[in-house]
Amino acid sequence: MMRRVLVLSTWVLLLTACGVVSAFDGGDTVRVYSGRHYDLEEAFLAFAEDTGVSVEFLFGGDAELRERLQAEADQTSADVFMTVDAANLQIAAEEGLLQPTDSEVLETAVPPNLRHPDGLWFGLSKRVRTIVYHPDRVDPSELSTYEDLADPRWSGRLCMRNSTNVYTQSLVASLIAHHGYEEALDVVRGWVDNDTQIINSDVQILETIAAGGCDVGITNHYYLARLLAEDPSFPVRIFWANQGDRGVHVNISGAGVTTWADDPDQAVTLLEWLATDGQEEFVYGNHEYPVNPEVPPPPIPAQWGTFKEDPLNAAEFAALNADAIRLMEEAGYD
Amino acid sequence: MPTGGRIGWTATVVAVAVLTALPVLVVAREGLSPDPEVWRRLWNGPLPEMILTTLGLLLGVGAGSLVLGVGLAWLVSVYRFPGSGMFEWMLLLPLAMPAYVLGFVFLALFGFAGPVQTGWRALFGPHAWFPEVRSLGGAVFVLSFSLYPYTYLAAKAAIAEHAPSTFEAARLLGDGRLRAGWRVMLPLARPSLAAGAAVAMMETLTDFASVQYFNVQTVSVGVYRIWRGAFDREAAVELAFVVLVFALLVIAAERGLRGRRRFEQRGGGRELRPVTLPGRKGLAAAALCSAVMTLAFFAPVGQLVWWAVGSSSAPRLDRGLVYASNSLGVALTAAAAAVGVAILLAGGARLAGSRVASWATRLATAGYAVPGPVVAIGVLGLVLAAARLFASFGWDDPRVLVGFSLIGLVYAYVVRFTALAFGPVDASLEKITPNVVDAAHTLGAGPTRVLRQIYLPLVRAGAAAGGLLVAVDALKELPIVLLIRPFGFTTLSVWVWELASESRWSMAAIPAMAIVGAAMIPTVVAMRRLRNPRAVPWVS
Question: How far apart are CA B281 and CA B274, in angstroms?
Fold first, then answer.
């Protein structure tokens, strides 16, 4: 029995290996390590049609792929490293895993605060982390800033994401960048003192608000857009935080060319395409905002109007990510 | 007998153990120079609470999975009732649910906005009290219901092996069934049960995916957060040592529970004849099994089906077959390899009879106590070193690396999951009388022949159980396959994660069910073995 299982499984594995190995030919292919999955396939197919260059991508967690890239170094077959938040791109840049790109197309298409100053990485889509609320229980005039949610009048009414989540880390890092550690600590302590419910899913935060479990939350904008696409009467509204001061916190999904890319020019072509012609393919399916100011936002976010964005460069809050974790530990934020 | 054989076996066991622990050792080297600053910060910060939480979670899940696993195994082994034959294997199915799926699904079901609490509020008013789901208690509950199959499997194997002789003897001496079970079977099954509970606790220990949904901050969550968020791999590895200490505690507890006594199987080829539970009792037993199955399996699957049906966009199902064959290929190869390594280690250590060999087996099972990403990074380092070596001989075709990646993947699973196979295999060997072995030696059989002709046939039930555990764990494993797989190699668990990582649960539902389906194959195969263990072929 054991022997049969062993023989069978070895055959299956060998066949698979042959399949994988034979499919692996050098040639006109850009290989991407991607922490992002959604809509990539369609976008890459469109890119192949436009340019004749095919794209292969290997999906994984941002941090894991960065570790892998670092371990593989000159042995890597990845030409592009793509993530769903800025922090891992910035760390990859600091670790020397990315090479500078000099592209006028990218510099025009991507605003300066959404790319690395030396062109090591570029934001490709914007993810806005802002305040959401239930219209029956909250009047939007009550809402103002992330900091204001630390006020005791919000006690027992808040839902937020856990501290292990990178979006929470980036938001808190941006608080540190603007206020310094101590003041940011007071804000997060205020959230904790308000008995904020910590939920490990933006979708469930939104559903809990809809069901009456809390009144106000902080989520990425596209999760609400997604729920609204399924059910236009979903009873949660969006509020752009901090419009009276620095603007709402914006994170990016972005990419950079790896130091060991076989053909850096081809990799740059892919990034240029994603930042220009491919913007719609890349961001629309997930209701994200294009980085390119020339490209209009997708339909649902378009209804939410324009807003003021925090101009803080993603590299800056990325550098404060570790501090943000320490701060949340200190504040007792789960 | 010639001592050369013994030294040879010691050397073999040590070599296999070192090979199995190598990736862990590679990474551990980094953690050997502790940074006092890191530790001061951890001690003054979250660590004490994390340790308490981990302890509470471990004890809770250990107790919970023991009660569920042993109770259910007893019920389906000793009695016949409506559906008992079906429950016998169905009760293993919760194993197939990956933790990262289960945590989310449970919160979707039992969270504030889920159907359970919504119904509750409809019945008892909008402010009716409901226990806090996102709590240590919630995590203990869910993990117990998803991990009890480990103790169930262990108990089932133990009952199958011991029942014929000892249990029937106690019955003949006038004990009732329950009393015979409590007084005779439970002590005899203790080594197996301890091994099963230890597995459930180890899984709990290294889990960082599902506990996060319950806001439970264990040490593993801390490792994950420091590594992924603070980008401090050294501090993360140092904290992973705390996980390792916990693992050593679990192992020590397991050894302690096993006790010093040895329990040997003394022939008795008859199988246990189950008793039919009459009428209402039978229905009650069926209802109990159904209730457990509903909570642990049908409700989560039902939720997944609900999402799949309600989804407007379907995932690319045509790829499902390729992904499933990738998954099964890796999982079965890893299971066979891990069982082989386990037999070599457990049997070899017995033949060697040396303290060194017995310590070496412990080293070999250390990978199970190390979080997946740590193992993966260690293996990745070795894979790359091998590829570099080949490249230095002029073999720098990228396809070499692809091949090495696949071998590395299987190797990583052996490193991580050998302990799963080792437990049942070792427990089976524990029951072999030294008399039989001594007799064989007296008759001139060398260690190799003893291994092949006595240990191997006896170890079948343990090998089947161990192989199943490794295969199922490898099927749902995520962090290692994400880090090591080559381009173009996607498994079912990667597929689920692709869709689930951005909360696209309606699309992730179908692949998640595919994992459950794939995991049923080894489950059914192993179950057939367990039902008819033929543990002592030369007697029957």
Answer: 15
The reply to whether A161 and A184 lie within a common domain is yes
Specify whether A149 is located in the same domain as A235: yes
Q: Does A171 reside within a domain?
A: yes
Contacts of A58 in chain B (CB under 8 A): 485-487
Residue A276 counted as domain residue: yes
CA separation for the pair B97, B108 (Å, rounded): 15
- How many pairs of residues across A and B have Cβ atoms under 8 Å apart? 186
Helix (H/G/I), strand (E/B), else coil: A99: strand
Query: What's the pTM value of the predicted model, to 2 decimals?
Result: 0.85
Left (φ > 0), alpha (ψ -120 to 50) or beta: where does A231 sit?
beta
In a shared domain, residues A216 and A268: no
Domain residues for the domain of A325 are 127-249+314-331
Average pLDDT rounded to a whole number, residues B455-466: 80
CATH number where A201 lies = 3.40.190.10
Q: Which residue of A has its CA nearest to B117?
A: A211
pLDDT in tens, B245-269: 888 888 788 777 766 555 554 444 5
Rounded Cα gap, residues A205 and B96, in angstroms: 28
Numbered ranges of CATH 1.10.3720.10 in chain B = 1-33+311-540, 51-310
- A79 within 8 A of A30, measured Cβ to Cβ: yes
Q: Do B488 and A20 touch (CB under 8 A)?
A: yes
CA distance B400 to B164: 53
Q: How far apart are CA B464 and CA B339, in angstroms?
A: 9
Query: Is residue A172 assigned to a domain?
Result: yes
DSSP H helices, B79-172, are: 84-90, 99-110, 115-124, 136-162, 168-172
A48 in the same domain as A140: no
Tell me the shortest Cα–Cα distance from B396 to chain A, in angstroms.
9
* Same-domain status, A95 and A32: yes
User: Is B329 at the interface with chain A, CB within 8 A?
Assistant: yes
Interface test with chain A among B323, B401, B456, B501, by most A beta carbons within 10 Å: B501
Write down the H helix ranges in B32-83. 36-44, 47-78
| Tokens matching residue A167 | 């979006």
Give the nearest partner residue to B229 out of A67, A166, A207, using CB atoms.
Answer: A166
> Which runs of E-coded beta strand occur in A35-169?
54-59, 80-83, 98-99, 122-133, 158-160
The shortest C-alpha distance from B242 to chain A (Å) reads 18
Q: Do A9 and B215 touch (CB under 8 A)?
A: no
For the stretch A139-181, pLDDT in tens is: 999 999 999 999 999 999 999 999 988 899 999 999 999 999 9
Instruction: Select the residue of A38, A56, A199 nearest B488 (Cβ to Cβ).
Output: A56
Q: Report chain A residues whose CB lies below 8 A from the CB of B108.
A: 204
**Tens of pLDDT, residues B32-89:** 677 787 788 778 878 899 999 999 999 999 999 999 999 999 899 888 999 888 898 8
Pick the CATH number of B51-310 from 3.40.50.1110, 1.10.10.10, 1.20.1090.10, 1.10.3720.10: 1.10.3720.10
Please tell me if residue B486 touches chain A, with a CB cutoff of 8 Å. yes
Interface with chain A: mutation pick from B414, B499, B502, highest number of A CBs within 10 Å? B502
B1-33+311-540 fold: MetI-like fold (1.10.3720)
Question: Looking at the domain assignment, is residue A99 inside a domain?
Answer: yes
> What stretches in chain A show pLDDT beneath 70?
1-27
* Partner residue opposite A164 with nearest CB, options B225, B328, B339: B225
ipTM at complex level: 0.80
User: Which residues on chain A are in Cβ contact (under 8 Å) with B377?
Assistant: 67, 71
pLDDT, tens only, B30-47:
666 777 877 887 788 788
Look at B465 and A29; give whichever has higher pLDDT.
A29
Residues of chain B contacting residue A199, judged by C-beta atoms under 8 Å apart = 107, 111, 134
Tracing tokens 């099963």 back to the chain, one arrives at: B196
Instruction: Please give, rounded to a whole number of angstroms, the shortest distance from the CA of B177 to a CA of chain A.
Output: 34
**B495 near A CB under 8 A:** no
